[in-house]
Amino acid sequence: MSSGDPGPSSRKVIAKRTLQNAEEVVKAKKPRATKSKGKEKEQSYGQWPQYFHSLFKVYKALNTVLAFVTSRKQLATTFPSIRSSVENITRQPLDMSQVAELKALLPEIITFAYVPRNQIQVNLSTKSSNEPDFSAFSVSNQSNLGLTKEPEHVLLLEFAESWKGTAGGTRASQNEYLLPATRTPAATKKLVEKRNERYIKAIDELLAATPSTEDPVSLLQAAAREHIPLDPAYIKSNPSVDETMHMSIPNSEDRAPVHNILDDLQEQDWYKDQIVERRTVEAREGQTGSLNPPLSATIRKALQSSRNIVSLYSHQAAAISALDSGKDTTRALVNTNDPITVNSKIPLLRVLEHDARATAIFVYPTKALAQDQKIALENILKTCPGLEHIQVFTYDGDTPTEQRAGIRTGASVIFTNFDMIHAAILPHEELWRSFLKNLRLFVADELHYYSGTFGSHVAQIMRRFRRVCAAIGNHSTRFVSCSATIANPLAHMVNIFGLDPSQIQVVTEDGAPTGMKEYLIWRSPYVDEHDPALGRQSSIGEAVDLMRFFMKRGIRVILFCKIRKVCELAMKTLRTELSSEGRHDILERVQAYRGGYSAEERRRIEHDAFTGHLLGIIATNALELGVDIGALDAVLMLGFPVTLASFRQQAGRAGRRKRDSLAIFIAEGLPIDQYYLNNPSELFDKITDNLIVDLDNEIILEAHLQCAAYEMPVCFEDEIYFGPLLKKICRLKLHQDADGWYHTHNKYLPSPSKHVSIRGIQEDKYVLVDVTKSVVSAKILEEIEISRAIFEVYEGGVFIHQGRPYIVQELHHDSKLVKLVQVDVNWITKQRDFTDVNALQTYRIREIKATPHRAYYGRVEIFCQVFGFYKMRHNVILDVVDVESSPWIHETVGLWIDVPDFVLQLLRDKCIKPAAAIHSAEHAFLNRFTLASDIRTECKAEEKEYLKKESRRKRPARLIMYDPVGHGSGVAAKAFEHTSNILHKAWEAVDNCECERGCAKCILSPLCKEGNVVSSKAGALAILKAILDIKIDPDSIPYETDERALRGHDSIVTVSPLHTQSTQNVLIERDRST
């Protein structure tokens, strides 16, 4: 077992302690003066034991050979291929034990381990004749001739290095791609000298830390025994070689307490002070409550039989009592041990006991969550005498048409979503009239999910719903909601349901018991703390190591990833690591979970998690909501999950059943992650932002008034539901009959709801089919939307599903069919693409108050083109491939603001890239706009702006924001109408922010798809001032000093005003805001 393995170690030898002490000694030493450096080195070198001089000769030979080989474009460096070259230099045999001693001395610098053969391959075995084979150095001639079977693993020997062919000779950032380039002889010589000095320093550290009673040579040799790699094939045939490698996994009930496991974690060889913040939330006893009148004997029996509930917690009793008194309720709690099951289903049972004709609607944001809660209710009803006959159905888009009539007439309870209420229930209210007339309970779970544009649609749907119920004589429906902790639960429920605030009871005090919870912030360590130029370890690698460590100790863990591709990369890495260890017993208990998987696959994974079969899950936020996947012990969050609300929602998934638990935020190298890493109190203490529902959005309101008028004619008295804008919209957009009633406009007929998409236009999808065995036995892997497919599936590219790589063999755009073949490769592909956001036509012009500048609103084109891909391993480009593909072109609407020429020149004079300044100014604008999550901007990509080669693509100097394609939400129009106010708020936020280079309070956006890497706070401030006509002192703009930001070329050109025929008649709108 290598020292990099995060499995438990039973070897606590004095050699290990001494080498660790050596690291501590060097940390405490002050740096030597430069002028005496050479003399001190000579003195220390002369005092070494002779053995270390001999070992130094071996090290220098290895160093020279590896530096030469790696200077030639990613040649693989296996031990057999390097060994003979080193022996030619030293004139003596090279033994594995010597390399192991060097590995023990410099564990962060040297890689000496068996790896899967595919980890050093660059091309498939079916490569064309003109493709180079970079794994040639790793196989013997016999293997090439096919005389022997190639082993599954090869012994890899590598030195970490800070030069990978990038400009300036420095290592790229964690998010930057390293181009394969040939190192110059001078650079190679410098690298060799630097690494030789690292050996001298390590020996000095060892000697300083060794007790006088010990022999440093013996200590090093003893420590080296841990670093002699074992061939996995040998381990597989001799399972007793290392028993710790196959230690049994404790049952979840028998696992050690979290604090003990964390103590063990900090004793591991690979732990390098990654924990930078630790907070503990102590366990809390539960508080019970009582009901008056109490529950009936039958309901008590049902709760005990189905869910082992014998008493109610105080918050449950408070919510049920409020409903008994005739109030609607909303519950907003940080604790998620107690789902909405009890709060809403006990009132339902009481209602059904008194009135067998009563009906109820339960609304959930996802089908999986609805199905989960439907089963829970059915289990209660089965055990409740007198209510066994109650019919419960799911009514969603998957419900067969032939079953729907029976559900309308026979159901007492339906589980549905707002899409179905909008498009299938309200337009056919006459078919649902009996059900709606007897409706006594309407329950909406996960209320925080409904905000922004989608929440604004839902709010209007609820007003339509309440209007229909009132028209048929039902005024007695009670409304219940449940939410994660939000800043404004009362206001949000009022906004969504349109209810009188005095009739709502908010329950926020949580009476449920909780176990102790540990919160950690984790920062990836430097590859070598003595050479920061090597950069930090991969955050994905850190997350996978933590998963392996926890699962081996019986900790059930979920790893949340922000995007699907990272989810699959993490699963692929975990699959590789566990396979190399031979831990197939753990691997078979880990699954990835994300959007795109088939419903059947997601249900299977959910079932495996709920039953306790799964030890680990790697998921996107698809599992952030409350689908019951059983008791989890730990949550890992790879990168900041966009919002504080999501951070707390994800953290709350662990510890759901009174056990102690753990939540770890693993910071990536992105600026937004670094901000929270340096300001941890904001993660834990800051109040979440208010949820926004835009009830004054005229585009959304008109759409739902057209639907409402179809359900039954609208009159001005309906202002009590739809607000004061109703009269204006009715007069301008609807048809009025002779009696004064307003009806749906003809363009929306015959089915208005089909013209109103509350989630945006549903895209066509490509079907991904696995044809590995044959076309005849092909099976569907998943479906993927067109907007994703263009970036993720292209011929020759790697697509990952459940951590298994597939090559795109054929891509048929006409039939939207993608044929995939499973392969065994350890590289991925990254598309080479660009996206241009172009303003095409001006519809409106608005003054920016008290300035000569203008904001524009109109037609915007989104042009996406994939022209090739990189083959990549560990962020290093192995190959560059061109592909031919059709562009993805769509149109939407947006606003834009042209940047004055003079400020562009000011920025260039200060070496600030205008692209970075524009990008940050756009973020500053969006950070001050309440509906920013529903609007997009043209984010600047690091690989374009900081490339050595100048791009021919030049972009106009303008800030541009637009509605997502297909949404038609009117959010961009809303931003346009408040441009002056938003710009002033953005300027004040940036100008008053105390940070140096930008933070989440001013220019960093968690929504940036390029990770905020291309940014400039000073540049953003200058642009905002220029647009607002605020005087700029050139001396106040600092020179750009960041080496990375100084690379590349200027990609911004002076903007040309749009000259279209329609612009001639556009009047400039005045800003009359105060």
Task: Describe the protein in words.
The structure is a single chain. By secondary structure, the chain is of the alpha/beta class. Helices cover 36% and strands 19% of the residues. The chain has 37 helices and 34 strands. Strands 3-13-18-17-14-16-15 form a 7-stranded mixed beta sheet, with helices on both faces. Strands 8-9-7-10-11-6-12 form a 7-stranded parallel beta sheet, sandwiched between helices. Strand 17, helix 24 and strand 18 form a beta-alpha-beta unit. Helix 20 crosses helix 21. The longest helix has 25 residues. It is globular. The termini are far apart. The N terminus is likely disordered.
Low-confidence segments: 1-13, 25-37, 126-148, 163-175, 333-340
Radius of gyration: 32 Å
Q: What form results from the Cα inertia axes?
A: globular
**Number of β-strand runs:** 34
Physical arrangement of strands within the biggest beta sheet: 3-13-18-17-14-16-15
Described by its quaternary structure, the protein is: single chain
Distance between the termini: 69 Å
Describe the main β-sheet briefly.
7 strands, mixed
Helix share, percent:
25-40%
Q: Strand portion, in percent?
A: 15-25%
By DSSP (H or I, 4+ residues per run), the number of helices equals 37
GO molecular function: 3'-5' DNA helicase activity; ATP binding; nucleic acid binding
Protein name: DEAD/H helicase
Domain Helicase C-terminal: 545-699
InterPro entries: CDT1_Gemini-bd-like, DEAD/DEAH_box_helicase_dom, Helicase_ATP-bd, Helicase_C-like, HRQ1_WHD, MZB, P-loop_NTPase, WH_DNA-bd_sf
